[in-house]
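Please check our next protein.
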Amino acid sequence: MAASWRSALIRKTKKKANSCVKDVEQVLKYFHGLRPGIQEYTYENGRQTELFAMEGTIPIKIKGVTYNIPVCVLLQEGHPEVVPLVYVRPTSSMAIKVSPYVDANGKVYHPYLHKWNYKSSNINTLLQELCRIFTQNPPVYTISRGPSNSISQQSQGNSHQDARPSGSLCQDPPAQGSKSDESKKECIICMSKEPNSVLIPCGHLGLCMACAREIQRNSKQCPVCRSVIDQVHQVYES
């Protein structure tokens, strides 16, 4: 099994094969719930390809209880020079909880991905960062197992708002939403400055002006909904 995934990874990465193998070995050493393999992936422009993937679960701990979050990490052609893709893949008893970090399709957005640098970034650190963020903002919640409430992966983006939640993951982490928490809001990109901008036309908040302007200059896409950014306006507290 180990030899087969290494061969598959080398075929897909070629240029940086040795560093990619070491990166994946490190991930599998610490995240035992992930399994390597090849998966077919369709890009937004319709192009289909096969990518090396690590799919399974990563652990988070809330109030002393460990939960396994289903994810899939896809290494694009040209990895590590090309940023990896990460998705939350809920089971039939789960639904996605949309946030600045996860969209309705399960695609993950995080400052570590936004600032990916092939010379210093790696998958293991990325997953550790996701565990930290998902502990604060769980990306899934459980739903009732009845036929009317079950969801499939294909319909998860539209069904999660109507599903009846049950279990701890449907609740916000401790102290979230309290006044003390409100005073600690951080930019979802740099996670250091206070968010004080709004993106036009989508209207999403959560970024500081410096990061918002940098994204407008570079990717030109909102990190939450991926719509094109026409303008960035500063927001002032009343």
